[in-house]
Each structure stands twice: as C-alpha cells, then as structure tokens.
C-alpha cells in the first residue's frame, strides 16, 4: 500500500487535485463509500505534502479501505497492481459525475467506420463513468478480429486502467526491453479450436487472428510487468531486468492505424513500484520523481533517500507510471 501511495502522491495532477478544494465539489452523494475513501486518501496526500510532517502513517486510510474491501484485511502482503486498480476505481466512484448509470446495453455499431465506432463506444462508457480520475488514467484499446475464411475484420473498443505486459515469453532470449514487452502484448495471435470466435459475416465460429493496439492514450499510463507466472508445477517470479526508458517512451508503433490525435504518444517515467522477494512473500518499495524539484527519491516505508534517476530501472520494477508529455484541451 505504501509503495502505491507514494507513486500516486507524486502524480502531479492528482496531488494538485487533492490539495485544492475542487474534490469536495465533485463528490458523488450516491457513492457507496460516501466520500470516506476519498477523504482518507486526500488526508494522506495532504500530510505527505505538509512541511511539518516527517513520517506519515496511513492507518486511518487503511481502515477505510478494509471497510469496503475485506480482501485487504489482515497483514498479508497484497499485490500492488491489484491494490492500485481497487484504489483508482474506488476514488473514481467517489467523484463519478454520473449520478444514475444507464442500464442500456452498448448499441449496435456494425455499420460505423472505425473512428466513429471508437468514439461512440467511448461516449457509451462515459455515460456510465465520468470523473477526473477516469480522464487521467483510462485509455482505450482496439481489438481487431479477422476471419481466416472471409477476411472480414471486426473491431471492438474497450477501456483500460493499466496495461499488463508479458515478460515470460521473451525473457529466455537474453536482454529484455519495454519495447519487447509491448510487442509481445500487441502481437497478432491466432484463435482456433475451442477459442474460435463468431464471425458476423459467416454467421458461424471461425478461425481468426486477433490484434491489439491502442486507440486512446491516457495522460497517465500505468504499465504492469507480469512477473508472476503459473508454471506447470508451481508459481514463479520472473526476476530478470526489463530495460525501460526513463524518458521518451514512444508508443506510436503500438497505436491503432485509426489513431489521429495530434498529440504524439510519447511518455516520461515519474514513478516505479518495486517488488523485492519471491511470489510467496516480499516487500514493496517505490522510486518517485518529485514533481516540484524533479529530484528522484527512494521510499521504503518510513525511510526516504535521494537517488539518481538512472537507478530507477532495476530487476525489482513491477508497476511503472508514465506521464504523457503534452495534452491539449485537457481538464487535468
């Protein structure tokens, strides 16, 4: 928990949102958490950025989390990526501007062009989820299914809070880079046998290829390295080094061919949640770049030490936080 809190605390737009009074105006009275989760989170952020606060204990905030998610009860180690997802979705619901969510199913869009379909799908999701948190962290994936029989291509567009990129398929070849992981995540795969999808044109299940790409890039991109894999006999952690850029992560090669935003999808790293240990136990730390001073710091529970930017890339890196270099017409 501490590792993720430090990463989010150094997310400048989120920090500024919490330090201002804006969040009070956006509280959702229909949230099942009744503002307790958001208020607890804001208290932690404000304490962390208070000049007279040396060590911050998030005990009260932890209590609020445990009220709404029993899986975080006790002192067992929790996966930081799973905790991040729970926290972001919870904070989003606290300030979701959609007071009554529509129960209407997603409309039929088979006759629309790709860009129209992506936009209409996004509008449908925004009719259910609309918040500062959603706008900051959520992007949109394009999934293209191509029938091997008639060549018909079906496109679907889904939101994502983070991208979980595989490392287990490529680590044995030697040096691994983030580009390798992203290529593995987006590479074309064949769906056959029991995995055959339904072809809208053939009106039956067919052998198809599936290709993922990114249609909408979020202002804050969270990349999760899938270090924990299920082996044939036991679970294992992949502890090799994945080299990732500290600045200038260019995701243009992984963009949908229908992507037409004027903002180039280039990201800069500002925080890393690290996992030290095995899949059966361990400890989380964080490396974060202070948004004010640009100084990188190492956070290990109550210990904070300055560090060099080059030291952020290690074998323990688990969840990476990247910020889009520029964003026009953004509410962030």
Features:
332 residues; alpha+beta; eight-stranded mixed beta sheet; four-stranded antiparallel beta sheet; 9 helices; globular
Please give a structural write-up:
- The protein is an alpha+beta fold.
- The chain has nine helices and 18 strands.
- A hairpin with a 4-residue loop joins strand 6 and strand 7 (204-205).
- Helix 4 (36-48) packs antiparallel against helix 5 (59-68).
- The mean pLDDT is 90.
Mean pLDDT: 90
Query: How would you sum up the major sheet?
Result: 8 strands, mixed
Poorly predicted runs of 5 or more residues: none
Beta-strand proportion: 25-35%
Number of DSSP strands?
Answer: 18
Radius of gyration: 21 Å
* Class per helix and strand makeup: alpha+beta
Q: Percent range for helical residues?
A: 25-40%
Please give the alpha-carbon distance between the first and last residues: 25 Å
Q: SSE string, helix = H, strand = E?
A: HHHHHHHHEEEEHEEEEEEEEEEEEEE
Question: Number of DSSP helices?
Answer: 9
Which outline best applies? globular
């Amino acid at each position: 928990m501490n590792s993720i809190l430090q990463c989010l605390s150094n997310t400048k737009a989120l920090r500024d949102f919490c330090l201002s009074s804006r969040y009070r105006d956006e509280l959702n009275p229909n949230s099942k958490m009744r503002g307790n989760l958001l208020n607890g989170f804001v208290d932690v952020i404000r304490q962390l950025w208070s000049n007279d606060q040396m060590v911050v204990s998030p005990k009260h905030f932890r209590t609020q989390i445990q009220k709404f998610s029993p899986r975080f009860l006790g002192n067992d180690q929790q996966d930081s990526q799973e905790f991040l997802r729970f926290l972001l979705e919870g904070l989003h619901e606290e300030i979701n501007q959609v007071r009554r969510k529509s129960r209407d199913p997603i409309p039929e869009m088979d006759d629309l062009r790709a860009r129209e379909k992506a936009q209409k799908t996004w509008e449908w999701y925004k009719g259910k989820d609309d918040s500062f948190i959603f706008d900051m962290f959520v992007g949109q994936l394009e999934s293209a299914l191509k029938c091997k029989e008639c060549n018909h291509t079906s496109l679907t567009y889904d939101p994502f809070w983070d991208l979980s990129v595989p490392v287990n398929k490529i680590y044995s070849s030697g040096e691994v880079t983030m580009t390798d992981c992203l290529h593995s995540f987006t590479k074309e795969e064949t769906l056959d046998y029991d995995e055959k999808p339904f072809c809208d044109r053939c009106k039956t299940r067919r052998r198809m290829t599936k290709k993922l790409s990114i249609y909408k890039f979020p202002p804050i991109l969270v990349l999760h390295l899938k270090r924990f894999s299920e082996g044939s006999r036991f679970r294992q952690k992949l502890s090799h080094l994945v080299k990732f850029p500290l600045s200038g992560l260019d995701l243009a090669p992984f963009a949908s061919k229908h992507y037409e935003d004027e903002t180039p999808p280039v990201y800069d790293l500002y925080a890393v949640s690290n996992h030290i240990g095995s899949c059966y136990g361990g400890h989380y730390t964080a490396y974060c770049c202070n948004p004010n001073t640009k100084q990188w710091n190492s956070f290990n529970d109550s210990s904070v030490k300055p560090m060099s930017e080059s030291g952020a890339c290690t074998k323990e890196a688990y969840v990476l936080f990247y910020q889009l270099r520029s964003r026009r017409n953004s509410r962030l």
